[in-house]
Amino acid sequence: MSLATSEGEELWKKGWELLERGVVDKKHDFNLAVLCSINSTLHPRSRTLVLRKALKAEGELWCYTDKRSDKATSIDAGRNIFSWTFWSPRHKIQFSGSGKTRWLGTEESQQLFAALPRHSRKAYATLSAPGSSVAGGNRGLPADWEERDLSATDYAADNFGVLITHLTEVEILFLSREGHQRIRASRQPFRTWELEWLVP
Ligand SMILES: Cc1cc2nc3c(=O)[nH]c(=O)nc-3n(C[C@H](O)[C@H](O)[C@H](O)COP(=O)(O)O)c2cc1C
Fold it and tell me: Which residue of 52, 53, 65 sits with most ligand 1 atoms within 8 Å of its CB, as the best mutation to test the pocket?
């Protein structure tokens, strides 16, 4: 990694530390991200979701989603560059990064689904695709959802997928009374990150 200064390296490390904390701590600011993709009418579309894994060495961010959702179908249509944004008011750090996004292999993703409790499976269990029209306030789940045991929710595995973004462009902004700081990290896929300072 070529680094602008050790202070730049510190900010880079801090950004990844916050992501790693966000994965394991539901109350952490970086547990939730805003994920942006391009929809079928080529409009940007953002939504909040939970960060499930952050791998610094690989430069990857993972999330779980319904394979029928808008973000999922955009990948399958080749609009697979996604952007993630995190903000921590406590640490005064914004992390935003983008790159090509792909699906985790079916076997691994099915193992993750199998470990999900019933209430977590609900997000993948609607009878129609997320975002389809539905009559007045209907939650989209089978009518007997509340009575079902875990095995009766296994069908939702078909809708469950894990998205992995391989980041190639990252910016980290640190807000400070002494003056804000901003770095950009970029790389070719699977190559070394190059860091530079930007005017905040
Ligand atoms: C706090 C919060 C957490 C969410 N977590 C997820 C998540 O982990 N995965 C997911 O696909 N959607 C999650 N959602 C729902 C998404 O924001 C979005 O509504 C849904 O995925 C459909 O998105 P799409 O139709 O734009 O693809 C979450 C929403 C909120 C408000």
Answer: 65
